[in-house]
């Protein structure tokens, strides 16, 4: 079975683009190891800042 199924989760991974899935939200950017390390240590990164803004934008879209 699949790892999510084996863990008893109903969640599924869909590798299609958000547009192909019919979702009208902005995608986040991959952070990469350097930015991920900075974020884990509590230091903001440009990509992390961008992803936080995308999250705000997507939350506003959900309320429309």
What this model shows, in words?
The protein has helices spanning 3-6, 32-40, 46-63. The chain contains 3 helices and no strands. The chain has one domain (3-63). The radius of gyration is 15 Å and the shape is extended. With 64 residues, it is an all-alpha fold. The relative contact order is 0.14.
Provide keyphrases for this structure.
3 helices; 48% helix
Roughly how many Å apart are the termini? 38 Å
Number of helices: 3
Count of structural domains: 1
Major sheet size, sense and barrel closure: none
How many strands appear in the DSSP assignment? 0
Secondary structure layout plus pairing:
Elements: H1 3-6, H2 32-40, H3 46-63
Short description:
The chain is mainly α. The chain has one domain. The chain has helices spanning 3-6, 32-40, 46-63.
